[in-house]
Design brief:
Layout: E1 3-7, E2 16-22, E3 25-31, H1 44-47, H2 49-53, E4 63-65, E5 74-76, H3 79-97, E6 102-106, H4 113-123, E7 127-130, H5 138-147, E8 152-154, E9 164-168, H6 172-175, H7 182-191, E10 195-198, E11 211-213, H8 220-233, H9 239-245, E12 246-247, H10 249-256, H11 261-268, H12 272-284, E13 288-292, H13 302-315, E14 325-327, H14 344-347, H15 370-379, E15 387-391, H16 395-398, H17 402-410, E16 414-419, E17 431-434, E18 443-445, E19 455-458, H18 470-480, H19 490-504, H20 513-519, E20 521-522, H21 531-534, E21 543-544, H22 548-552, E22 580-586, H23 600-603, E23 610-613, H24 615-620, E24 628-633, E25 636-644, E26 652-656, E27 696-704, H25 710-718
Parallel strand pairs: 6-7, 6-15, 9-10, 9-13, 10-11, 12-21, 15-16, 16-17, 22-26, 23-25
Antiparallel strand pairs: 1-2, 2-3, 4-5, 4-17, 8-14, 18-19, 19-20, 22-27, 23-26, 24-25, 24-27
């Protein structure tokens, strides 16, 4: 039986798998022992791919709604009928109301994401957006771009092991995102590599850490500013590197000077001695790497918090050194986004908000603000957004303030949705399209913004039903609308990416997609100290602690932090009714955002959403371990199952995200029962540079939910 090498895209990771195919069906899936990132290891998401592909509830052909929106009544149609309907409706709406009346939205980044922006530019809409990019990777990526010109990651793969790892706002032992797979942080723990962990909640890594900084949720930027001050004040920085390669060090020192130990401790709740110890460790451990996550991005301080944290390995001489925080090798490009296809006058109409990173002042990539775009659907201001195409995005679950999202989606004239299964969002659409899973897609997978190690091959090994890749849909719809997608096939795009890879690295000349399939991956040898050859990829050629480019674009050229808009400090008037600090986003291994809740082997591992809280706080509320509780704030209430953790602050609770219940059935599958985004804040104020919103450090109250039937419903479903 043939065996194929292909990259798993069940998350952001990049594990290579060996898939065995018999009679047109995948019959075995195992991690590739030679995979350059995973080295023979895989997680339960990847291992369950056969169950996912052949699940009885999987979407296998296009559907058209025949009842009212949300009625749950559908009929199957052919792809030709679906394309004709979509093309006709979009042309009509765009002719009547302009291309800005169409929006497209995507979610977490997978194989389709690079072509998603190309798709929007070819369609001619300025309103391309994502529920994730503003609050998941985007601010970190932008921090890298505006500080050193590139992104960076931990050097897990080189001959020199990290001397220590600063883990900030992430639990990579569970999430394993962006090519830095969960296996490697676990290896580091087993090897005794010291960890400095910044997190308000205990997790698998905090108990192993040399130092755990349990900060007040939402104060990451303040802590980073305080640590920077301590490093500078105590001369723990790399004097030679700062002298030769950093721009704006004196201005940074002046900016952080007001963040002395007393003030930083008062704001963050981290004891002064721990802040000083963190600065000492960060300044003296060599080499030190940075492993960070989206917790630092999900606030109104997102961009500058990320800038401040990014500067820590830079000024301490740990950037692009063996075993340290190493820059992306830029192995291969993504597909050309074709920025020139978007009419300049139309581009000015995009619903960007006044955020310079998104609106063209600082980047050619225009980014419509997701909440503001939904608000235009809901209210018609600044103009009506009448049509939406959603790709890889369970919008009703993934955008903050989900009740606002529900109102907005119900106002659409036309809604196209593409996914693996019916979801709460799918039930609001007019046309639902069946998306291909990763063994059904041809793609070059490289992570140029993630501190990459290799370019990996995704290859289509089977066809299941009538499922298509998102990219194939993008290309064919544009063709049917008479628009030039810039390529005749995905094969042409993939070969173009590999040709550019060969231009950058001539040793791979002649590797087209057929040869790439055979190879499985391309992993060039990493080089270090690359700035010594050509400087940094910034305007000045240096690490720009002070950024003239940001200043010209209307953003603060230096990092800073201000109190978020809904905390006990900024909203003391709410603390009487909502005395607890809510942080969201906690994840578990079986799931990827809102995916996989109907996959039985995965659901059994973690059947219910958990809200973590301190035992003393729970006792005061009459809550015991395992009780279902209500979590409530001004935007609504949800229910989750209580988990009591003695190492949390008594006034902090942490709930899981991404929850809905396929077993609840159509039309909405329990979308509002446990969905953390019912509670999060999407409305302004936003991060002034990039528009991020507040998903953490919110206010809430918790109380028992004694009549919850979610558990009984699940048990009945699980027995079938």
């Amino acid at each position: 039986m043939p065996v194929y090498k292909t990259a798993c895209r069940g998350c952001h990771g990049g594990c290579m798998y060996l898939l065995t195919v018999e009679d047109g069906r995948v019959v075995a899936a195992r991690p590739d022992p030679d995979g350059p990132l995973n080295r023979g290891r895989g997680c339960v998401k990847g291992m369950s791919i056969i169950e996912q592909m052949y699940h009885p509830d999987r979407l296998l052909r296009p559907r058209r709604r025949v009842g009212g929106r949300g009625s749950g009544v559908w009929e199957d149609v052919t792809w030709d009928e679906a394309y004709d309907t979509i093309a006709s409706r979009l042309r009509s709406i765009m002719d009547e109301s302009g291309p800005e009346s169409l929006a497209i939205i995507s979610g977490t980044g997978r194989h389709h994401l690079a072509q998603f922006w190309r798709f929007g530019n070819v369609l001619g809409t300025p309103n391309a957006t994502s529920s994730g990019a503003l609050i998941c990777l985007g601010p970190r990526k932008n921090a890298g771009e505006f500080t050193v010109g590139r992104f960076a990651g931990v050097d897990y793969y080189g001959a020199v092991r990290p001397g220590g790892i600063l883990v900030w706002g992430a639990n990579p032992a569970i999430s394993g995102a962006d090519g830095e797979l969960s296996f490697h942080i676990r290896d580091a723990v087993r090897e005794g590599i010291p960890l400095i962990v910044v997190d308000p909640k205990p997790n698998e890594l905090t108990e192993k850490a040399r130092l755990w900084l349990r900060l007040r949720p939402g104060t990451d930027g303040a802590l980073a500013m305080g640590i920077l001050r301590e490093i500078i004040e105590n001369e723990l920085y790399d004097r030679e590197f700062v002298r030769d390669w950093c721009l704006g060090f004196d201005a940074l020192a002046e900016r952080v000077s007001r963040w002395d130990l007393r003030r930083t401790a008062a704001v963050t709740r981290v004891p002064e001695a721990q802040i000083a110890e963190a600065a000492r460790l960060i300044g003296t451990i060599k080499p030190l790497a940075l492993e960070w996550g989206c917790a630092v991005e999900q606030s109104t301080n997102a961009f500058q918090t990320c800038r401040a944290i990014f500067m820590l390995p830079c000024i301490t001489g740990n950037y692009d050194v063996p075993g340290g925080f190493v820059e992306s090798m830029e192995i291969a490009p993504t597909a050309d986004p074709l920025f020139d296809r978007l009419d300049p006058e139309t581009a000015k109409k995009g619903i960007f908000g006044d955020y310079p990173i998104n609106d063209g002042r600082l980047s050619p990539k225009l980014f419509a603000h997701p909440w503001l775009t939904l608000e235009a659907m809901r209210t018609g201001r600044p103009y009506p957004v009448r049509a939406l195409i959603s790709s890889a995005n369970n919008t009703l679950i993934s955008v903050p303030d989900s009740r606002h999202t529900m109102e907005a989606l119900q106002k659409l004239d036309f809604f196209v949705y593409m996914d693996f299964f019916m979801t709460p969002t799918a039930e609001l659409a007019d046309i639902v399209l069946p998306a291909a899973l990763w063994p059904e897609v041809d793609s070059v997978f490289c992570m140029p913004e993630f501190g990459d190690v290799a370019a990996l091959c995704m290859q289509k090994v089977v066809q299941v039903g009538e499922c298509k890749s998102d990219e194939d849909f993008f290309l064919e719809l544009c063709r049917r609308m008479g628009l030039d997608y810039g390529a005749e096939s995905q094969r042409e795009i993939n070969d173009g990416i590999l040709a550019e890879l060969a231009r950058r690295r001539p040793q791979y000349a002649g590797v087209d997609f057929d040869r790439f399939r055979e190879r499985g991956w391309i992993a060039p040898e990493r080089t270090y100290y690359n700035y010594r050859k050509a400087g940094f990829a910034t305007e000045s050629g240096k690490v720009e602690l002070y950024s003239d480019r940001l200043a010209r674009g209307g953003a603060d050229p230096l990092p800073d932090w201000v109190e978020p808009p809904e905390t006990p400090v900024s909203r003391p008037d709410l603390t009487g009714k909502y005395p607890l600090i809510l942080t969201t986003g906690s994840r578990t291994m079986p799931y990827f955002i809102s995916n996989n809740r109907q996959i039985r082997s995965l659901r059994r591992r973690h059947p219910f959403p958990l809200v973590s809280m301190h035992p003393a706080a729970a006792a005061r509320l009459g809550v015991r371990e395992g009780d279902w509780v209500w979590i409530e704030n001004e935007r609504g209430r949800i229910t989750q199952k209580a988990r009591l953790l003695a190492d949390m602050d008594e006034d902090v609770v942490s709930c899981e995200m991404g929850w809905w219940y396929p077993e609840a059935g159509p039309p909405y599958y329990g979308w509002d029962e446990s969905n953390a985004n019912i509670l999060t804040a999407g409305a302004p104020p936003h991060d002034p540079a990039g528009g991020a919103y507040q998903l953490r450090a919110l206010l809430c109250r918790v109380y028992p939910n004694p009549t919850c039937d979610i558990e009984a419903r699940y048990n009945a479903w699980a027995k079938k």
